[in-house]
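INFO batch 0412 | record 1 of 1 | parsing
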Amino acid sequence: QVQLVESGGGLVQPGGSLRLSCSASGRIVSINAMGWYRQAPGKQRELVAEVTVGGRTNYADSVKGRFTISRDNAKYIVALQINSLKPEDTAGYYCNADLVYNRDSGYRSRQCWGQGTQVTVSA
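INFO prediction complete | emitting C-alpha coordinates
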Protein backbone atom coordinates (compact mmCIF):
# COMPACT_ATOMS: atom_id res chain seq x y z
CA GLN A 1 0.00 0.00 0.00
CA VAL A 2 2.97 2.29 0.50
CA GLN A 3 6.26 2.09 -1.34
CA LEU A 4 9.57 3.92 -1.14
CA VAL A 5 11.84 3.76 -4.16
CA GLU A 6 15.42 5.04 -4.11
CA SER A 7 17.62 5.98 -7.02
CA GLY A 8 20.95 7.63 -7.70
CA GLY A 9 23.54 5.31 -6.22
CA GLY A 10 26.66 4.23 -8.06
CA LEU A 11 30.41 4.00 -8.18
CA VAL A 12 32.29 7.24 -7.69
CA GLN A 13 35.88 8.26 -7.04
CA PRO A 14 36.93 9.82 -3.73
CA GLY A 15 36.04 13.48 -3.69
CA GLY A 16 33.17 12.96 -6.08
CA SER A 17 29.48 13.65 -5.68
CA LEU A 18 26.20 11.82 -5.97
CA ARG A 19 22.58 12.75 -5.54
CA LEU A 20 20.23 10.17 -4.07
CA SER A 21 16.50 10.47 -4.43
CA CYS A 22 13.61 8.64 -2.78
CA SER A 23 10.00 8.80 -3.83
CA ALA A 24 7.13 7.63 -1.67
CA SER A 25 3.89 6.48 -3.25
CA GLY A 26 0.65 4.80 -2.29
CA ARG A 27 -2.26 5.72 -0.09
CA ILE A 28 -0.29 8.26 1.89
CA VAL A 29 -2.08 10.69 4.15
CA SER A 30 0.92 12.48 5.58
CA ILE A 31 4.63 12.07 6.15
CA ASN A 32 6.40 13.35 9.23
CA ALA A 33 10.12 12.71 9.18
CA MET A 34 11.97 11.41 6.14
CA GLY A 35 15.54 10.33 6.27
CA TRP A 36 18.45 8.40 4.93
CA TYR A 37 20.27 5.59 6.67
CA ARG A 38 23.25 3.58 5.53
CA GLN A 39 24.66 0.18 6.27
CA ALA A 40 28.14 -1.01 5.42
CA PRO A 41 29.05 -4.71 5.39
CA GLY A 42 29.43 -6.03 8.90
CA LYS A 43 28.13 -2.85 10.48
CA GLN A 44 24.84 -1.70 11.92
CA ARG A 45 22.52 0.54 10.00
CA GLU A 46 23.06 4.14 11.01
CA LEU A 47 21.24 7.40 10.54
CA VAL A 48 22.85 9.66 7.96
CA ALA A 49 20.39 12.54 7.82
CA GLU A 50 16.75 13.27 8.45
CA VAL A 51 14.35 16.12 7.80
CA THR A 52 10.99 16.85 9.40
CA VAL A 53 7.94 18.05 7.53
CA GLY A 54 8.75 21.52 8.83
CA GLY A 55 12.24 21.39 7.36
CA ARG A 56 14.28 20.80 10.48
CA THR A 57 17.34 18.71 9.66
CA ASN A 58 19.64 16.43 11.61
CA TYR A 59 22.92 14.97 10.38
CA ALA A 60 25.38 12.39 11.58
CA ASP A 61 28.60 14.04 12.68
CA SER A 62 30.54 12.11 10.05
CA VAL A 63 28.63 13.72 7.17
CA LYS A 64 28.06 17.27 8.39
CA GLY A 65 29.23 19.79 5.84
CA ARG A 66 29.31 17.20 3.04
CA PHE A 67 25.77 15.86 2.85
CA THR A 68 22.61 17.90 2.38
CA ILE A 69 19.12 16.50 2.80
CA SER A 70 16.06 18.10 1.25
CA ARG A 71 12.45 17.17 0.64
CA ASP A 72 9.48 18.07 -1.48
CA ASN A 73 6.44 17.69 0.74
CA ALA A 74 3.97 17.95 -2.11
CA LYS A 75 5.60 15.14 -4.09
CA TYR A 76 6.70 12.95 -1.15
CA ILE A 77 10.31 13.08 -2.30
CA VAL A 78 13.43 13.23 -0.19
CA ALA A 79 16.86 13.78 -1.68
CA LEU A 80 20.39 13.51 -0.38
CA GLN A 81 23.18 15.48 -2.02
CA ILE A 82 26.48 13.84 -1.21
CA ASN A 83 29.70 15.75 -1.81
CA SER A 84 33.35 15.12 -1.05
CA LEU A 85 32.77 11.40 -0.91
CA LYS A 86 35.19 9.24 1.05
CA PRO A 87 35.79 5.49 0.86
CA GLU A 88 34.23 5.15 4.29
CA ASP A 89 30.95 6.44 2.84
CA THR A 90 30.66 3.17 0.92
CA ALA A 91 27.43 1.50 2.01
CA GLY A 92 23.90 0.66 1.06
CA TYR A 93 21.78 3.76 1.52
CA TYR A 94 18.19 3.35 2.63
CA CYS A 95 15.33 5.79 2.58
CA ASN A 96 13.00 5.91 5.58
CA ALA A 97 9.67 7.63 6.11
CA ASP A 98 7.53 8.01 9.20
CA LEU A 99 4.10 8.26 7.65
CA VAL A 100 0.36 7.85 7.97
CA TYR A 101 -1.44 5.93 5.26
CA ASN A 102 -5.02 5.10 4.49
CA ARG A 103 -6.15 1.53 4.87
CA ASP A 104 -9.67 0.44 4.16
CA SER A 105 -10.16 0.10 7.92
CA GLY A 106 -8.82 3.56 8.66
CA TYR A 107 -5.60 5.48 9.00
CA ARG A 108 -2.45 3.76 10.19
CA SER A 109 1.03 5.01 10.99
CA ARG A 110 4.19 3.13 10.17
CA GLN A 111 7.85 3.35 9.44
CA CYS A 112 8.58 2.51 5.81
CA TRP A 113 11.87 1.56 4.22
CA GLY A 114 13.06 1.56 0.65
CA GLN A 115 14.94 -1.31 -0.90
CA GLY A 116 18.25 0.55 -0.78
CA THR A 117 20.73 1.91 -3.29
CA GLN A 118 24.43 1.12 -3.26
CA VAL A 119 27.06 3.85 -3.01
CA THR A 120 30.63 2.74 -3.63
CA VAL A 121 33.53 5.14 -3.29
CA SER A 122 36.71 3.82 -4.80
CA ALA A 123 39.59 4.94 -6.95
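INFO post-check: DSSP finds no helices and eleven strands in the chain.
INFO record closed
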